[in-house]
Amino acid sequence: MNSATFLIWVRETGFLIASSIFIIGLTIRFFEIFMLGRKKDLSEPKGCAMRGGFKTIFTRFLPQDSNTFQRSYFIIIAGYVFHIGLLVALFLLVPHIELIRAALGFGWVGLPTPVVDFLTVLSLISMLALLWHRLTNPVLKMISDAGDYTAWILTFLPLLTGYLAYHHLFFDYTWLLAFHILSAELLMIMLPFTKLMHTFTIFVSRFYGGAISGHKGVQV
Amino acid sequence: MSAPTLQKGLNAFAEQIDAPIASFFSSCVHCGMCADACLFYTETGNPKYTPIHKLEPLRRFWKQEYTLMGRLKKALGLSKAISDEELEEWKELLYNSCTLCGRCSMVCPVGNDLAYMIRKTREGMAASGHAPIDLVGASNRSVTIGSPMGVRLPALQAQSRKAAKETGLDIPFDQVGAEYLILLSSMEIMNYPEYLQAIAKIFKQAGKTWTLASDAFEATNSGIQIGVSDIARELVSRVVNAAEKLQVKTVISPECGHAYTAIRWDAPNLMGRKLGFKVRHILEVLEDFRQSGLLKTEGLEESKITFHDPCQIARRGGVIDEPRHLLNLVSNNFVEMNDHGKMNWCCGAGGGVSANEEAHEIKIKVFNRKVTQLKELKVDTLVTACANCRIQLEEGLEEYQIDLPVVGLTEMIAEHLVETK
């Protein structure tokens, strides 16, 4: 197989397989969660569970207080920089928007490439810092398992190959682009079955956690 | 309780797994922020006390039984089954070093309520025979005697006579049609008789009728702390039955955090029905009295005071503003700790820790967090609203050789009541 046929395969067959598994996987995972249900809370509410739940979806984007920030500043800052870079590269890079436009018929305005480039580099550096933190911090060393490192690799590869391909660095462009797309497809395939699932379930868990507090009248 | 077995423990886990738990485990990214929020980690530096790590048995069970991938792995023999040895190892993490304070739940960036999960994990621990022996004893005493500390009715009657003598007021028992039913914790009966005296004075001034119930005076619930819903249900049903028999409008939880959780939030769910009366913490009732002009006080505390928020009352109970309004009624020198209200640090002894001798050493060690908070403030008096926190605060301050009086908020209010003839 040469680079051109490989690129065509990942763009067509590969993408079809990846997006199918992605969607079926997400459906299965959400079904697994919601089919468990939860018991109705019969205690007299002091506050509003729904309000607490929906509010927490937004308020939990920031640490509760300055003390929490001081204690966990590294993970919060590195975590934010990495997530922002990743989301910007994914949704605000012009070639990605054009892909979306071609597939869905609509798109939006992207950011200038140097800005995306800069944030991507920051994201890659943050990810390396977070990996180092995971490998050296006693708490993270203890709680990390193979799933954590798998998720790291699955997220790091598309960012790295995308950056290399865009700048035509080190390898043949066609091969790089094909590997970039393949890495993104691997991410899609694995997302529902790894902790990367938090991309979607974070809204559910924040809702439930916030609803428990909201019911009791605790400000969230 | 029939003899515990591993299978019963796993069945109990299965009963506890629900959509919130599945979403919590699905969302966890292993960031470790919960460790920084837990005093058992911050004061020991030992990573095994990381809250999410304490939930590892439940997480594995959920994954193996309730996810497609987990079931596949299990079928292929690629996953490790949960064993008695493992649960025994986790006993220390789930009971000795967790007070169910829920501070971790407040900082988790994905919104996981870890305390909710630990409470549920304990059901499986108790059913499989891996609960601390002292909590088993306390639960048995609660069922057979009516109090985890073995306090019987005559002890309360003696305290009541003493309170009647001190205050010159009647301490009513079993008054049908009284507006309020007062519950107590064993700790208050044995160590803090001031509370009952304060109640008599405050309710007299407010002109409200109240009563104790001779068959349901104990508010604490060992069943919830150990994680046996059957025992918890039996204990709350005594209170519910007494309240309904006496036709009271409101049951008042004493200055005890976990008792409040038991009767306020868990009781209706354990009974499987709504209750025919309201449940309020004493601080909520006092704040109602204050707002209705029924709490007439005079004079202000001269000393500099601060307030220790009991976790179950503030962070897990939503009673946060009430104590502050009440404190400002009797003090103009009330200062807040660096972390307070819903972000307060736990005293280190709730959730069954104080009743568990195996946890004695660590509960004193982690009290260092409170010591650090107090040293930053340099106050003259420490006020709280939980008898269990109070005994830990007193014991901890003694261990750390700090001379600081600890006072219950209800009795502080009572001391400032305008004398009525």
Nearest-integer average pLDDT of chain B = 93
Distance between the termini of chain B: 53 Å
Q: How many runs of DSSP E, i.e. beta strands of chain A?
A: 0
Q: In CATH terms, what is the fold-level topology of the largest domain in chain B? A: Glutathione S-transferase Yfyf (Class Pi), Chain A, domain 2
State the domain count of chain B: 3
* Shape designation of chain B: globular
Strand content of chain A: under 5%
The first-to-last residue Cα distance of chain A is 56 Å
Proportion in β-strands of chain B: 5-15%
> Remind me, CATH topology of chain A?
Fumarate Reductase Cytochrome B subunit
Question: How many strand units of chain B?
Answer: 8
Q: Main traits of this protein?
A:
heterodimer; A: about 220 residues; mainly alpha; Fumarate Reductase Cytochrome B subunit; 10 helices; about 75% helix; globular; B: about 425 residues; alpha/beta; Fumarate Reductase Iron-sulfur Protein, Chain B, domain 2; Glutathione S-transferase Yfyf (Class Pi), Chain A, domain 2; Rossmann fold; 3 domains; four-stranded parallel β-sheet; 23 helices
Q: Can you offer a commentary on this structure?
A:
The complex is a heterodimer of chains A (220) and B (421). Chain A has one domain: Up-down Bundle (Fumarate Reductase Cytochrome B subunit). With 220 residues, chain A is mainly alpha-helical. The radius of gyration of chain A is 20 Å and the shape is globular. Chain A has 10 helices and no strands. Helix content of chain A is 76%, strand content 0%. Chain B is an alpha/beta fold and 421 residues long. Chain B has 3 domains: 126 residues, Fumarate Reductase Iron-sulfur Protein, Chain B, domain 2 (Orthogonal Bundle), CATH 1.10.1060; 156 residues, Glutathione S-transferase Yfyf (Class Pi), Chain A, domain 2; 111 residues, Rossmann fold (3-Layer(aba) Sandwich). Chain B contains 23 helices and 8 strands. In chain B, helix 1 packs antiparallel against helix 10 and helix 14 packs across helix 23. The longest helix of chain B has 17 residues. Chain B is globular. Chains A and B meet through helix 1, helix 3, helix 4, helix 7 and helix 10 of A and helix 2, helix 3, helix 9 and helix 17 of B.
